[in-house]
Amino acid sequence: xxxxxWFLAASAxxxxxxxxxxxxxxxxxxxxxxxxxxSVGSASTLDLGPELDSLDGRQLRVRIITxxxxxxxxxxxxxxxxxxxxxxxxxxxxxxxxxxxFQRKQGDRLIEDKNTVHWVENLGDEVAMVFATxxxxx
Length: 138
Fold this sequence. Notes:
This protein is an alpha+beta fold. The chain has a domain at 59-136: Jelly Rolls (Sandwich). The protein has 1 helix and 8 strands, in the order H-E-E-E-E-E-E-E-E. The protein has a 4-stranded antiparallel sheet, with no helix packed on it.
């Protein structure tokens, strides 16, 4: 009787170990030590120190803004709301107060510091998309 209990316990332990080992081997995902199959483009940065007195109550916001042909974001300021935007698709026209008008095409970035007062429109006949990030206070 003691032998059969020992055999049953040993068999159960072996089975659990086998199942666990199979699961680790089958579903094993080891983090790579170096990047592979990816590329990272150049970074655009904006020092937040001179932009904001404090980050208290602020949020990092990430959005995709879709501009239909003829679509526009009205005149606004980035004082207290610094951001960086990246044109994903199409071309937008950025009107920057005191600096001029700029065509921003796919791959271009807009650096929006506390001195930026601008509006953006899509003058083309295709949809334009912009990936926009900013630090704002809701």
